[in-house]
Design a protein that fits this description.
This protein is mostly loops and 494 residues long. The chain is 9% helix and 5% strand. Strands 1-2 form a two-stranded antiparallel sheet. It has a two-stranded parallel ribbon with strand order 3-4. A two-stranded antiparallel ribbon has the order 5-6. It starts with 12 loop residues before the first strand and ends with a helix.
Length: 494
């Protein structure tokens, strides 16, 4: 709740503070009257910060559970201005709790339910919020420096500017800040989190790790994201107008329909990023790393491919290894091409025709193969780490380990960890022994696919079709959406 206002003069202007309504924590801000000076002596923020014993905290939280359940004797937990530093609140149901100006520095809130909580101007520095549910939270003005929000859900939460006013000891009304700046989420860890529709306008989130997070439709206009890690982030529909993205890492990021009006992308790395329907005319892209046009190469495409074939057939003694790193090869006719051990890191191969291509040991990490035709292609031992293969045609593709010449019994596995195969067709493909940890197979066709001995840890198969999927010896720990044996047999018989 807001600072006390009793005995104040009424020559005032309105100031936004936290809401008292648990069902509108981010929508109906309470109004606190503020004057230029106080005649009496209301307490300062420092005076109001209170310690709380374990027993008191448990009593408050017990009453809060009754409040949430609608039982008699319940009361909404009000932990505003309480010092909860280093407390273990992991897994607790704290939805709708009032935490305005609370001190939660170093607290453990892993797996906690904080939906619709009011966390206005709170101190969450170095707090652990892994897997926490923070949807519809009012986090305006809060300090999240060094906090770990990995795998948390923050949909429709509000991280915008927010100011809490208080009387200082000289009797002046002053905006309260933490030792670090408010709205500060710098150096925070927000990996694999969901921030869809969140509001981060003007937020200070520099050097923050957003790897693999979903930030669709997020408001980031005028936010400071300088030197942040946005690798693999889905920013579809996000507003980044006037945002500071200098030195940011956007490798493999999804930038479809993003607003970049007057954004600063100086020195940013957009290697392998999907840039679709984006107007960059007013954005600053000085020294930014972007895809290269095919015309920028020193030799024609056919000559490069012929030299690489000589390089392959001669064991490296003749010809020249193909280097297509960051080159745009979208929709190129490359059927039956030989690019064994070729460099295609961050290459753009959207809609490319690569059926029956020989891509053994090729480096396709971070490559964009959306809608590409890879049917019957040989990808044994290839590096497809973080490659995007959404909607790709991969029927009967080979992705099993390859024998390494000169090393008896030595095999090199295909690495497609963190790759995206959503909506792809992998019917009758061989992915035996492949590294597929954290890969995405959403709505993918995997009929009669061989995944025996593959590493499928934490991979997603939601909405996919399987029919006779082979999983013997596969590591399926934390994998989501795989069928059990009875479901698989039923689908096959049907």
């Amino acid at each position: 709740m807001a600072p006390a206002t009793q005995d104040l003069e009424t020559d005032t202007q309105d100031s936004v503070a936290a809401s008292e309504n648990p069902d509108a924590a981010t929508e109906q801000p309470a109004i606190v009257k503020k004057t230029r000076r106080r005649p009496a002596g209301p307490p300062t923020i420092e005076d109001r910060m209170e310690e709380i014993s374990d027993r008191q905290l448990e009593e408050i939280l017990a009453a809060h559970q009754k409040y949430l359940a609608g039982r008699s004797g319940g009361a909404r937990a009000n932990l505003s201005f309480r010092d909860l530093s280093d407390r273990d609140l992991s897994g607790r149901n704290l939805s709708h709790v009032e935490l305005t100006a609370a001190r939660l520095r170093g607290a453990n809130l892993s797996g906690a339910n904080l939906r619709a909580a009011t966390i206005f101007c709170a101190d969450l520095r170095d707090a652990t919020l892994v897997g926490a549910q923070l949807d519809r939270c009012d986090l305006r003005g809060s300090c999240l420096r060094g906090a770990d929000l990995s795998e948390s859900s923050l949909t429709d939460s509000d991280f915008r500017e927010g100011t809490l006013f208080h009387w200082d000891r000289s009797g002046n009304l002053t905006a309260w800040t933490h030792e670090a700046d408010s709205q500060d989420a710098s150096s925070a860890i927000v990996r694999n989190a969901n921030l869809t529709d969140a509001k981060l306008s003007k937020a200070f989130v520099r050097q923050t790790d957003f790897t693999d997070s979903v930030l669709r439709n997020v408001k980031l206009n005028r936010a400071d994201l300088s030197h942040s890690n946005l690798t693999g982030v889905d920013l579809g529909g996000a507003d980044l107008s006037e945002a500071n993205l200098t030195g940011a890492r956007l490798m493999g990021a999804m930038l479809a329909d993003v607003i970049l009006s007057h954004a600063d992308l100086t020195d940013a790395d957009l290697s392998g990023a999907l840039i679709d329907a984006v107007d960059m005319d007013t954005a600053s892209i000085s020294n930014a790393t972007l895809p290269r046009a095919l015309e920028s190469l020193d030799k024609p495409l056919r000559e490069i491919l012929d030299l690489h074939l000589k390089f392959y057939r001669s064991g490296g003694r003749d010809g020249l290894r193909a280097d297509f790193e960051r080159v745009d090869l979208s929709h190129k006719e490359l059927e039956k091409v030989t690019l064994v051990a070729g460099n295609l890191r961050y290459a753009v191969l959207r809609g490319a025709k690569l059926s029956r291509a020989n891509l053994i040991m090729a480096d396709l990490s971070f490559a964009d193969l959306t809608g590409a035709d890879l049917s019957y292609a040989d990808l044994r031992g290839a590096n497809l780490h973080r490659a995007r293969l959404k909607g790709a045609h991969m029927r009967r593709v080979r992705m099993e380990p390859v024998d390494i010449a000169g090393f008896a019994m030595q095999k090199w596995p295909t690495n497609a960890s963190n790759a995206t195969f959503d909506d792809a067709v992998l019917d009758e493909a061989c992915l035996r022994g492949a590294k597929l940890g954290q890969a995405k197979f959403r709505s993918t066709s995997l009929r009669n696919t061989d995944m025996e001995d593959a590493d499928l840890q934490a991979s997603t198969f939601v909405g996919s079709s399987f029919g006779s999927l082979k999983l013997d010896g596969a590591d399926t720990r934390e994998a989501e959406g795989l069928p059990d044996r009875t479901d698989d047999a039923a689908e096959e018989n049907a």
